[in-house]
Design goal:
The structure is a single chain. About 30% of the residues lie in helices and about 25% in strands. It has 7 helices and 8 strands; from the N terminus they run ααααααββββββββα. The strands form 2 sheets. Strands 1-2-8-3-6 form a 5-stranded antiparallel beta sheet, with no helix packed on it.
């Protein structure tokens, strides 16, 4: 293990075993979980052993696969079914690459996850994501580029996008100051989604 690997394990001691336990509890192999999250099995293995730190987009993908939330993956447990979520400063996965900042904007145990997100300029603009579910975002300030398949959309403050997440998509801030947005996505493996969509809804 190199020095950076050791630092990763020290900074996020609870996330690695939590990721491993969630995967096993869902009955998923390393290969199956990695494929659904858009990661390689080797990369997911490094996350589960603490040798790599997950970025926010990685945590979002894994939260969808495991039917949980980013906050719960990080060990932040808000009151169950609390209808009110108080404001506060944006946070991020410590040391996670990409620089995305977020704050939970909805309750836990739901079929959707709501976040306030800051997308920094010049990071992960070429990362294409494909996964089950839907996404909705609303630009609060800054300009945001949303690429859906082969179509490019430049969004201004007040603009929103609502799309099927199986459409290959990329999100990037266009201004040096980044962009702030409200972001909502479905958790297709949550118990609520299982009831609403049917037991096979999470299968690829």
């Amino acid at each position: 293990m190199n020095p950076s690997d050791e630092g990763a394990a020290e900074e996020l001691p609870g996330v690695a075993p939590r990721l491993r336990d969630l995967r096993r509890n869902r009955g998923l192999t390393l290969e199956a979980a990695a494929g659904r999250a858009g990661l390689s099995p080797a990369h997911l293995s490094r996350l589960e052993t603490g040798r790599r730190q997950p970025s926010l987009p990685m945590l979002l993908g894994l939260a969808r696969v495991y039917g949980t939330t980013v906050s719960e993956l990080l060990g932040e447990m808000p009151p169950e079914r609390d209808a009110i979520v108080r404001g506060g400063p944006l946070e991020g996965a410590p040391g996670g690459d990409g620089g995305w900042l977020y704050r939970q904007a909805g309750g836990s145990g739901r079929a959707m996850q709501a976040l306030r997100v800051r997308v920094p300029y010049g990071t992960e603009g070429d990362l294409v994501r494909v996964h089950p579910g839907e996404e909705w975002l609303y630009v609060l300030d800054g300009r945001l580029r949303v690429v859906l398949g082969d179509t490019v959309h430049d969004l201004e403050p007040g603009d929103s996008a609502h799309f099927d997440s199986l459409t290959p998509h990329r999100i990037a801030a266009l201004d040096a100051g980044g962009a702030r947005l409200l972001f909502v996505h479905t958790l297709l493996q949550s118990p609520t989604a299982e009831l609403c969509l049917g037991g096979g809804a999470h299968r690829l």
